[in-house]
């Protein structure tokens, strides 16, 4: 038997180890602010039984007076016997007192040799004369990838964002983590007339407020036509949370986005007269159509043996539906962020409120469960952004600099149990984004439960050609570059260094030193690729990129994913972490369209070399 471990209220960590293993202590002001936000967290009672983990269904030792009621509603006859996988209820004297998470110890494994590409959906365009991609374009990209042997398509979160003023188009600050983005609905496919106005990107940049206004007008017209559709009415009846979400958006249209000024309590809708019926209908129909079109895309991909890979955002917008709907689950007065590191010396404040760890436990982590399950409705590869957040999160009190916060602990074992259970129920593979300063317990937890980590070749290119060269392992998803870093061509040309200098993260002396070192690092890349016989023209940047991609594909990583923009030597990133709208974050469209991809022999050859190297990697593993 595994004895239950008493669960104390979430502790505030008074210090942490930075990237150089130096002990950094939180300031008294930061600790005071975080402690005030955290509150007493129910310290007056024993919270050990709020959540109990039963790995492989084996219950830990429970008090004699405690019973387990299974999901089926039947009382478990013997606490010494294993329970079925699922979420069960702990009771005492007939009263519910906690939740049992009965999870498989190991998450589903991926087939070795898989590979695919990454591209944000907003960056995709079918033709040069189209303004914004839709879900069916995502399906078309899947088909393109299929004919080149790829099986995985990773994109950024497909969650709703605030696109009217004041706009916040970061996919990592969604209105809700349990809804789908209506902006990508293919309206013409649903019977809407063709758009009379389709603003093209200017300098490759999307104008979200304009696109939102035009799309919304067409969606409203379509919603009026489709409102009495029987399939829509069934969808609304089967998805009460969507109905509440739509009413909330309608209330915001009347009462303002800041729900804290409303007369009703959080989670309680105002009267019908304070809900705009047009906006409410818009979000009901939009959610229905988004769900239907994503179902078509995901089912077609699955039929070809392909996987949609989605990113799970760590948090939600403070004015959004989730924060309003979940009552006191979210903590006011603080934001989630990251402490200083060698790249972002000023730390980061991401602006969204954290979930209260103890209050989450009291619900059996219902909100986290629903978030994961929502994404796994369509994704068969799930990437947990900032997976360290399952163990600890950096809380920044409002009014403090991002450097002046403190870490708050979260119940890692319980969060991993939910992840393993939901992945098993969906038959999905899960990868944790474990880049940067990650506590050893997190990486150990990923390994213990067969959850994959991430290896980014772009982060270690400087070690190529040396004895420090780092290769991916079979326990990782390998990526050449990510949306937060510069693409391969950007690294080659030192644009990451220039970016750091432009934002005041390094001085002129450091800039010159790093650019000089980059010359040597490029020589190391060329030397290693030529030595492996992958590079025959060391003067060609394109040939060097293909060689590095092929080398990455040949490594041991179970899955390899390539930034599609690397294939045509894009040098601009999709996002600059630590910045907001002073950079063109989350707006830049890809230089090549779907039409271009279908006629690019060079990219076809890159895919062929990757496909061959991946097959060799899989064969090596047997």
List the keywords.
14% strand; 17 helices; 622 residues; 35% helix; eight-stranded parallel beta sheet; globular; alpha/beta
What is the residue-mean pLDDT, rounded to a whole number? Answer: 94
Computed over alpha carbons, the radius of gyration is 25 Å
Count of runs of 4 or more consecutive helical residues? 17
Distance between the termini: 37 Å
Question: What's the structural blueprint in terms of helices and strands?
Answer:
Elements: E1 12-13, E2 15-17, E3 23-25, H1 28-38, E4 51-55, E5 66-69, E6 86-92, E7 95-103, E8 114-118, H2 135-146, E9 152-155, H3 208-226, H4 230-238, H5 240-255, H6 277-303, E10 307-312, H7 321-325, E11 334-338, E12 348-349, H8 357-362, H9 366-375, E13 381-384, E14 392-397, E15 406-409, H10 412-426, E16 429-432, H11 440-448, E17 453-456, E18 476-479, H12 488-492, H13 495-502, H14 508-531, H15 541-554, E19 559-563, H16 594-598, H17 601-621
Parallel strand pairs: 4-7, 8-9, 8-19, 9-10, 10-13, 13-16, 17-18, 18-19
Antiparallel strand pairs: 1-15, 2-3, 5-6, 6-7, 11-12, 11-14, 14-15
Helix pairs in contact: 2-6, 3-6, 5-6, 9-10, 13-14, 15-17
């Amino acid at each position: 038997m595994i004895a239950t471990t008493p669960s104390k209220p979430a502790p505030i960590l008074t210090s942490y180890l930075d990237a150089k293993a130096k002990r950094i202590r939180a300031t008294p002001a930061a600790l005071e602010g975080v402690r005030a936000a955290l509150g007493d967290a129910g310290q007056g009672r024993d919270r050990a039984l709020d959540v109990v983990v039963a790995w492989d269904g084996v219950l830990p030792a429970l008090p004699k007076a405690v019973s387990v009621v299974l999901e089926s509603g039947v009382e478990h006859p013997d606490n010494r016997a294993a329970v079925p996988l699922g979420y069960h209820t702990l009771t005492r004297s007939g009263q519910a007192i906690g939740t049992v998470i009965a999870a498989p110890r190991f998450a589903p494994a991926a087939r070795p040799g898989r590979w695919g590409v990454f591209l944000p959906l907003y960056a995709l365009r079918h033709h040069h004369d189209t303004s914004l991609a839709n879900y069916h374009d995502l399906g078309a990209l899947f088909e393109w990838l299929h004919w080149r042997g790829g099986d995985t398509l990773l994109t950024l979160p497909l969650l709703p964002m605030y696109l009217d003023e004041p706009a916040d188009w970061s996919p990592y600050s969604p209105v809700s983590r349990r809804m789908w983005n209506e902006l990508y609905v293919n309206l013409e496919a649903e019977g809407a007339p063709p758009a009379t106005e389709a603003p093209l990107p200017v300098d490759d940049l999307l104008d979200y407020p304009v696109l939102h206004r035009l799309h919304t007008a067409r969606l409203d017209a379509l919603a009026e036509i489709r409102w009495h559709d029987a399939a829509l009415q069934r969808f609304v009846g089967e998805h009460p949370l969507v109905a509440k979400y739509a009413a909330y958006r309608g209330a915001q249209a009347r009462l303002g986005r800041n729900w804290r000024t409303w007369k009703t309590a959080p989670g309680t809708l105002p009267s019908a007269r304070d809900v705009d019926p047009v906006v409410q209908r818009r979000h009901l129909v939009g959610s229905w159509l988004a769900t239907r079109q994503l179902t078509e895309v995901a089912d077609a991909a699955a039929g070809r043996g392909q996987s949609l890979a989605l990113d799970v955002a760590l948090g939600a917008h403070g004015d959004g539906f989730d924060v309003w709907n979940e009552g006191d689950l979210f903590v006011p007065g603080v934001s989630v962020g990251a402490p200083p590191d060698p790249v972002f010396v000023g730390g980061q404040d991401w602006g969204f409120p954290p979930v209260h760890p103890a209050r989450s436990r009291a619900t059996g982590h219902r909100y986290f469960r629903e978030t994961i399950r929502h994404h796994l409705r369509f994704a068969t590869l799930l990437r947990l952004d900032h997976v360290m957040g399952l163990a600890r999160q950096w809380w920044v009190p409002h009014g403090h600099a991002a450097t002046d916060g403190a870490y708050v602990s979260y119940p890692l074992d319980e969060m991993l149990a939910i992840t393993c259970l939901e992945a098993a129920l969906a038959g999905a593979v899960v990868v944790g984004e474990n880049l940067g300063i990650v506590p050893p317990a997190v990486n150990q937890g990923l390994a213990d439960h067969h959850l994959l980590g991430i290896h980014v070749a772009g982060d270690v290119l400087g070690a190529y050609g040396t004895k420090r060269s780092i290769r991916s392992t079979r326990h990782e998803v390998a990526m050449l570059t990510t949306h937060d870093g510069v693409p391969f061509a950007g690294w080659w040309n030192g644009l990451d260094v220039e970016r750091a200098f432009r934002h005041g993260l390094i001085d002129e002396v450091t800039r010159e030193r790093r650019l000089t070192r980059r010359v040597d690092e490029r020589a190391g890349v060329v030397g290693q690729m030529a030595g492996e016989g992958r590079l025959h023209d060391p003067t060609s940047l394109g040939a060097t990129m293909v060689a590095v991609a092929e080398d990455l594909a040949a490594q041991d990583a179970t899955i390899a994913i390539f930034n599609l923009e690397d294939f045509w030597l894009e040098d601009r990133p999709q996002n600059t972490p630590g910045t907001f709208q002073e950079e063109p974050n989350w707006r830049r469209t890809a230089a090549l369209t779907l039409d271009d991809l279908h006629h690019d022999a060079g990219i076809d050859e890159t895919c062929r070399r990757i496909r061959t190297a991946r097959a060799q990697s899989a064969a090596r593993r047997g």
